């Protein structure tokens, strides 16, 4: 696989690893988002419930109180842009 294909596979697997432990198998609950942020991105803000609530409101574009894969990819894309532009 190419590097890009490998990166996509990792994103898919990471989402699937956290999704469905609670609630629907193809979405992330607030607790699953919090766990993913803590374990995969090492974000200290994930320990603050208020910050997790703010992030959930921004990510949950369809208002169903869960994060689907498209909404998750919005987070990943924003983080990638932030990192890219902060290194230029």
Automatic annotation (TrEMBL):
<dbReference type="GO" id="GO:0043542">
    <property type="term" value="P:endothelial cell migration"/>
</dbReference>
<dbReference type="GO" id="GO:0070062">
    <property type="term" value="C:extracellular exosome"/>
</dbReference>
<dbReference type="InterPro" id="IPR011992">
    <property type="entry name" value="EF-hand-dom_pair"/>
</dbReference>
<dbReference type="InterPro" id="IPR013787">
    <property type="entry name" value="S100_Ca-bd_sub"/>
</dbReference>
<keyword id="KW-0106">Calcium</keyword>
<dbReference type="InterPro" id="IPR034325">
    <property type="entry name" value="S-100_dom"/>
</dbReference>
<dbReference type="GO" id="GO:0048306">
    <property type="term" value="F:calcium-dependent protein binding"/>
</dbReference>
<dbReference type="Pfam" id="PF01023">
    <property type="entry name" value="S_100"/>
</dbReference>
<feature type="domain" description="EF-hand">
    <location>
        <begin position="47"/>
        <end position="82"/>
    </location>
</feature>
<protein>
    <submittedName>
        <fullName>Protein S100-P-like</fullName>
    </submittedName>
</protein>
<dbReference type="InterPro" id="IPR001751">
    <property type="entry name" value="S100/CaBP7/8-like_CS"/>
</dbReference>
<dbReference type="GO" id="GO:0005509">
    <property type="term" value="F:calcium ion binding"/>
</dbReference>
<keyword id="KW-0479">Metal-binding</keyword>
<keyword id="KW-0677">Repeat</keyword>
<dbReference type="GO" id="GO:0005737">
    <property type="term" value="C:cytoplasm"/>
</dbReference>
<dbReference type="InterPro" id="IPR002048">
    <property type="entry name" value="EF_hand_dom"/>
</dbReference>
<dbReference type="GO" id="GO:0046914">
    <property type="term" value="F:transition metal ion binding"/>
</dbReference>
């Amino acid at each position: 696989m190419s590097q890009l294909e490998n990166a996509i596979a990792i994103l898919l697997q990471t989402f699937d690893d956290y999704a469905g432990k609670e609630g629907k198998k193809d979405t992330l609950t607030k607790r699953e988002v919090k766990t993913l942020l803590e374990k995969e991105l090492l974000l200290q803000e994930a320990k603050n419930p208020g910050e997790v609530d703010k992030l959930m409101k921004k990510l949950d574009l369809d208002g169903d109180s869960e994060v689907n894969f498209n909404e998750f990819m919005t987070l990943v894309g924003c983080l990638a842009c932030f990192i890219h532009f902060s290194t230029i």
